[in-house]
Amino acid sequence: MNDAEAQEAQRTTAMGLITDAKNMLQAAKILHEFGVRTVKGPTYYLLGHAIEVALKSFLLANGTSLTVLRKRIGHDLGKAARRAIAVRLNTLTPVVQEYLGYIELLNVYYEAKEFEYRVTGLKSYPPKEKLFEFLEAIIPIIEPIAFQALKQRRTQSQPHAT
Length: 162
Hints:
The protein is an all-alpha fold. Helices cover 72% and strands 0% of the residues. It has seven helices and no strands. It has helices at 3-11, 14-33, 40-61, 66-73, 77-86, 93-110, 128-157. Helix 3 packs parallel to helix 7 and helix 5 (77-86) packs antiparallel against helix 6 (93-110). 33% of the residues are buried.
């Protein structure tokens, strides 16, 4: 691990990622609830990014390295979701499985960055309500796991008395 990767590993935590997911979800809700229906791209982008960092928070808390998150999963929501499903003995799996079709449909546009850069043509987006439901269901599951990982990390980084 080079110096830049070591610094990123020090400042990237599962708790930080789940906090970012909550903030993005809140921003998406504001756009949606205030009737800004014509601002579809930014709302879907925020929902996709919230899903990405929430799932990465869970994976990071369960031992997936930042290198794997960055290089093997990247911005692929489907890969992140399937990897989360594969984590043994977790309460997140049934929820992710239930919404996997919506995640995969969003991922078509999210991974291709079509919410960030205009791409013309017909689109078939998942219902925003289903994405909101998904995030509202997984964040309360992931947050205590992320908090526990943060506590363990702090304990491991403290010098031990000899």
